[in-house]
Amino acid sequence: MSRKNSIIGSTLQLTVAMLLIKLLGLAKKSIIASVCGATAATDAFFIASEVIVALCTVFFSSISISLLSMHTNRLLKKGRESSNNLINAVLRVFVPIACIIAILFVTFSNEVAKVLAPSYKGTQLNELSDYIRIMAVMFVFTCYYLIINVVLETDKRFLPGKGQSFFQNLFVIIAALIFYPQMGVSALLWSFVLAGFVQCVQITWNARKTFKLVKGRSLDEKESIKKLVLLALPLLLGNAIYEINDIVDKQISSGLGHGGVSVLSYGASINEIVTTLVVGSISTVLFSHYATWIAEGNIKRVGDSLQQSLEYLLAIIMPIMVMCFVAGDLVVGVLYGRGNFDADAVSRTTGVVIGYAAGFFFQAARANIVKVYYAFQDTKTPMVNGAISVCINIILSIVLSKFIGAPGIAFATSIAMLVVTLLLMPGVKKYISTFSLKSSLLDFFKILIATGIVGITSLWIRDIISGNTYLQFIIIGSYIVLSYAAFVILFKVKCVKALINKVNIARR
Question: Which candidate, 249, 468, 261, 274, places its Cα nearest to that of 358?
Answer without folding.
Answer: 274
